[in-house]
Amino acid sequence: MISEGTAFTFAVIFGIITVLLVRSRDVRAWEAVCVGLFGLYLGQTPVLFTVHGLVTWVISGFSHT
């Protein structure tokens, strides 16, 4: 289960990315994914648990040493 603090942190990160993307007025596919993730973390939908598992898996793959 995702904690409230973790969801808030991800919502803030994806929110900042979303604001910067909207200001640039040029949204690519990966940027649209960031905007969608922001909406999921902000809305706390039931799909969030599956998406959070995927995001955690991808981030741990990049930070694995």
Automatic annotation (TrEMBL):
The chain crosses the membrane at residues 6-22, 34-59. This is Uncharacterized protein. The keyword Membrane applies. It comes from Streptomyces fumanus. Keywords: Membrane, Transmembrane, Transmembrane helix.
